[in-house]
Amino acid sequence: MLNYPIKVQNSIPNILIYTVKKPLQNGSFRYYSKMFNLKSGKVLACMNSEKELVERENATSYSLYVDVLKCIRKRQGFGTKMMKFAENLSRRLGCNGNIHLIASSELSPREVPHIFYRKYGMNSGNYEYDRKMDKFIRKNKKATIKDFPSRVMYYPPIKYNSPVESVEIEESSNLWQSIIKFFKI
Fold first, then answer.
1. Which CATH superfamily is domain 15-184 in?
2. How confident is the model over 78-91, as pLDDT tens digits?
């Protein structure tokens, strides 16, 4: 006889992400991933991706290119879960968690995906463009295709010097040049 209560565990998750790997003619592979609700059997999101060599911060490295990311409903957390899955898939494929994609407004011109990707932590590599996205996020403003055309975005974000940083560097280098000239006389 048991002297303690039996613990019932829900070991079956509500959501399952399944990936199929298909070879391409160039020798690489394309990954087709779907997120299912196990209770209803419905597809919640899908993603197509492949491993690519890309130029990131003046170096060539592997990155997972997310070609398609679609969710049946927005603001339910499905997109975030698929992006986390893409990050893990990127690590498994030897891409060190690097992801890149084209944030495009073609599927929903009234509500662009750029803001979602920016909130996830991606950037475009362009300081002004990223600051504009940040401004939309702060003001909780809806962005349209007129605000943000299609743009390549990267995760982890690409490092860039902001205009303020570059001005400070220029001013400090002029200061050093002045000091050097002073002591040469």
1. Gcn5-related N-acetyltransferase (GNAT) (3.40.630.30)
2. 999 999 999 999 99
